[in-house]
């Protein structure tokens, strides 16, 4: 009888441990999914930083080109006005 009670108690403990293992396995899957998502977001953020830096550089280059075009246009206006004045 004592052996049977011990067997029942061990079986119950075994069942509880199996249930806890299943819960921990599920939690592990959730954490892995969160980690994967965090890594993806990190990669996405790094890509956005690179794009921002490239666009900032392109913007700087375009502003410089625009400034040079404005200067050239002003020089052409002055030349045109001089030609109009001397004609």
UniProtKB/TrEMBL annotation:
GO cellular component, as recorded: cytosol; nucleus
Keyword DNA damage found: no
Coiled coil: 14-65
Keywords of the record: Coiled coil
Keyword set includes Transcription: no
PANTHER family: MAP3K7 C-TERMINAL-LIKE PROTEIN
Protein's UniProt name: MAP3K7 C-terminal-like protein isoform X2
């Amino acid at each position: 009888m004592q052996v049977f009670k011990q067997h029942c108690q061990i079986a119950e403990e075994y069942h509880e441990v199996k249930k806890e293992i299943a819960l921990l396995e599920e939690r592990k899957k959730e954490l892995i999914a969160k980690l994967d998502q965090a890594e993806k977001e990190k990669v996405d953020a790094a890509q956005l930083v690179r794009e921002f830096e490239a666009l900032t550089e392109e913007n700087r280059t375009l502003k410089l080109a625009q400034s040079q075009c404005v200067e050239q246009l002003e020089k052409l206006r002055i030349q045109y006005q001089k030609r109009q004045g001397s004609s």
